[in-house]
Amino acid sequence: MPGTPYEAKFRLGNGQVRPVHVRERLQVDPLLAYVVRSGLERFIRSGDPEPLPRHLPRDWRKTVEARGPSGFAEVERAVKGVALLWKAMRDPKDPFPLSHDGYVRIWREEGAGGDPPAGVILVDEAQDLDPNFLTVLSGWRGKAQQVFVGDPRQQIYGWRGAVNAMGEIDLPESPLTWSFRFGEPLASFVQAITARQTQGLVPLVGRAGWATEVHVNLFPTPPFTILTRSNLGLVTALLEGAQLFSLQKEEAHVVGGVEELVWLLTDLQAIKEGGERPRPHPELLGISKWEEVESLAEYSIVLNRLLRLAKEYDLEALAHKIAQLHGPEEGAKLVLSTAHKAKGREWDRVLLWEDFYWVAAYRWFFPNTAPPPSEPSPEFLEEENIFYVAMTRARLGLHISLPEALAEEEAKRILDRLSPGLPSGEDRGEDERGETLPAPFTGPTPVSPKEATFPLPSLYDRLLSEALNGGRDPLLHLLRDDLARLSGLSPTPLPPEVAQALWERARPEEALGAIREGLGAMWREDPYELLRAINALALLGGRNPRKLAKILGDRFPGGEEAEDLLFVARARKRELMGRSLAEFWRGLGASVRHPLLKAYARARF
């Protein structure tokens, strides 16, 4: 609204309402300021004539209402606060800030300028339309031709109040099913997955002039793009990618930038330490105690995920690492984006990270294991759509990283089950040695020239001695597999049901004991005990340095040594679950600093 009194209101908050603005106007505590701000945003984007309790955060409302009359009074107070702020936002003379969504609603309430601006109105992305725009378009019906373009299976912004306009109107439909972004077999793969989703098959046809490959648990070689379900997953993917591919300064790119995230992380660390805050973040103004941050995190998704990072990292150091890695998209070895920010984009090779909604995805891949929900929630349906959007961003190759909980044998057969015409595992370059667990120990195996790096004969002797002395520790099976791989051999796999049973019988207490011994051995340079430590960590799936430090006490190495050990153990875990990790091991061999860990990683390629 340039040239109007609203322009100054908009510039005051740069198009945003911050919690500090709510606190100053209503004189409420930080938590209620966040709640009312959230309610204001939700109300503005709705078609409701006045604020209602359902505009407030659901979890907060349920928690407060459980208190009885006093809780209902608190909810009513918050709703009244939303109404007061909306009145202030609408008043051009009131200094309360005007948001982007706010001026759209004011424009709609004031008649949207009267008649339509043109004889034909084209509405793109109609599956995620702001209710305010839908109301305006309804008022223009009969005054201009309206063409709605969208894909209901790409509706992914319902969480912020967007609606599928095509489901609200009765107009002739013309489906478009051809995609020139990708070819077969990706189109067949997408059809197979969507056919097993609650909303049914999407009849995509790949019309690109190339065959778009699909790979499960096979990571591409940089450059490629990683898509994640959440911002937390994006940070994890960035850190692991940087470690595994030895990324240097500005060799990664995060779509949308990292400035806001770096600012938040730095300020959160300052609050946690109770020190000076040289540049407070607008979302954290008025907050001075870490306890206040923890309370807010119960109802703020962003803060909740950042606090999960705070349990594992020094946030300021993490911010510095992220800022150092981020650079221009052109020439980046790794491009990272959330699925939401990837909307409308495409890349040659795309890897889907592990943090997608795998409770649903497990059924998409293995329909006999979990029945579909009888009444799927809007959130569940949106998860299906998010995965569909993510799958269709790739041009040349789609790579899917399944979570470690999925059985390896099932994961290896996904492509054969869903798309029989796809290349075999060997043609796809998958590691045929990637088995869930190795066969029981059957005696020494011939060694390769790699014994110059690892004393393989003596290691086999120690393993044999332990097995003959009645050892039944699941670690023995992992060690036998590990030594075979270090020798360049392929161990004979157990039947899948036996391997899975063995995996489920793993004893965490014994594994922790092996870790304690192994960590002590790192300083004694004992390769066998180091192998026990790596495989014990892999068995536990441990990846939280602070948690392990608390369990293991002074035996846990600090700093770079701990980071190296955890990355190697995580790679080993993935290897045991059947992943092809040649490039990962290559990256670890170049980046880890402990000499034995470096030798261990290099022996894998």
Structure overview:
The protein is of the alpha/beta class. The protein folds into five domains: 6-108; 112-167, no CATH class; 177-256 and 326-430, 3-Layer(aba) Sandwich (Rossmann fold), CATH 3.40.50; 258-325, no CATH class; 449-602, no CATH class. It is 48% helix and 7% strand. The protein is built from 26 helices and ten strands. It has helices spanning 6-12, 19-26, 30-45, 58-65, 69-90, 100-109, 131-139, 186-195, 231-244, 259-273, 290-297, 301-310, 315-325, 358-365, 378-391, 408-412, 414-418, 456-468, 474-486, 496-504, 508-524, 527-540, 545-552, 559-576, 582-591, 595-602, and strands spanning 120-123, 145-148, 178-179, 205-206, 213-216, 224-228, 252-254, 334-338, 347-352, 394-400. The longest helix is centred in the N-terminal third of the chain and has 22 residues, at 69-90. It is globular and about 85 Å long.
Keywords:
alpha/beta, Rossmann fold, 5 domains, 10 strands, 48% helix
Content-based structural category: alpha/beta
> What is the arithmetic mean of pLDDT?
78
Strand segment count: 10
Number of domains: 5
* Share of helical residues: 40-55%
Uncertain segments:
405-415, 417-452
The CATH top-level class label of the largest domain: Alpha Beta
Report on the biggest sheet: 6 strands, parallel
Distance between the termini: 61 Å
In terms of DSSP E residues, the strand content is 5-15%
CATH fold topology of the largest domain = Rossmann fold
Output the radius of gyration. Answer: 28 Å
CATH architecture of the largest domain: 3-Layer(aba) Sandwich
Please give the order of strands in the largest beta sheet: 5-10-9-6-8-7
* Gross geometry: globular
Tally of individual helices: 26
CATH superfamily of the largest domain: P-loop containing nucleotide triphosphate hydrolases
